[in-house]
Task: inverse folding
């Protein structure tokens, strides 16, 4: 479930702007999505000209973060991050991660930090470091470590449901059907976020907000959905309201013991000219 790990709001707002630097040459990854690094210039951190995020430049001075679409090769890092973040009854299983990263990887986003062997994320104490790998063939001595993630699927409902959070048990053998009732529904116009997580070791650095704002901007630009929805506990309502979400009432979802609130971000209302 989405969770606020970075409750501190910095006093200064940093504008998110695209950076030309990426892991490889150019700015487009092999899956067709742009990669960005965090620009520490006078304009702040960069992931898109239309968003402002309350983040602290000094807090990220020891990291070298960039965002990138997640894939099946990231599944072990995703599981490690999930397990380090959520109570056991709210965690996503490895099989469910594999299903989501296979069926709709374009709906998930990771915030990575590239580090040298003596860098801040180069420590076995970080849950995801054991699964780090070189960012590209030209940088064999560096490691790219997952520090935050957004995991999602699409659904036809306007809220997150128990069915949308589930997945077909036989998905590996039969593939994905357009008439799917459980899990990802490709023809849906609602993006259901199932996990917003960031390493507890970097609590207070605004990484959750960075990856979430970058994700929201990416989904707006793609035109593939009308809204983004998620579930939150009562104490996180204000956090998501500050990101542009609306409280649409109590959820009937019973996952993790229930007691969830529906939060919705309407994309079509936020687009210019809509």
Result:
């Amino acid at each position: 479930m989405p969770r606020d790990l970075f409750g501190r709001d910095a006093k200064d707002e940093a504008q998110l702007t695209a950076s030309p630097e990426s892991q490889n040459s150019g700015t487009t990854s092999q899956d067709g999505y742009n990669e960005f690094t965090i620009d520490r210039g006078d304009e702040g951190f960069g992931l898109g000209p239309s968003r402002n995020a309350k983040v602290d430049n000094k807090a990220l001075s020891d990291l070298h973060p960039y965002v990138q679409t997640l894939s099946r090769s990231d599944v072990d890092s995703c599981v490690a991050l999930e397990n380090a973040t959520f109570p056991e009854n709210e965690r996503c299983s490895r099989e469910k991660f594999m299903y989501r990263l296979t069926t709709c990887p374009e709906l998930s986003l990771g915030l990575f930090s590239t580090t040298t062997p003596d860098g801040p994320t180069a420590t076995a104490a970080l849950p995801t470091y054991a699964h780090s790998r070189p960012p590209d063939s030209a940088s064999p001595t560096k490691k790219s470590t997952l520090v935050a993630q957004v995991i999602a699927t699409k659904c036809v409902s306007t809220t997150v449901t128990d069915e949308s959070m589930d997945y077909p048990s036989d998905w590996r053998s039969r593939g994905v059907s357009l008439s799917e009732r459980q899990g990802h529904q490709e023809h849906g116009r609602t993006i259901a976020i199932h996990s917003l997580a960031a390493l507890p070791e970097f609590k207070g650095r605004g990484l959750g907000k960075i990856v979430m704002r970058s994700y929201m901007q990416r989904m707006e630009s793609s035109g593939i959905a009308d809204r983004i929805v998620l579930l939150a506990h009562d104490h996180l309502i204000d956090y998501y309201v500050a990101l542009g979400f609306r409280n649409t009432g109590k959820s009937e979802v019973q996952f993790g013991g229930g007691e969830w609130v529906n939060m919705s971000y309407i994309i079509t209302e936020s687009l210019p000219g809509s």
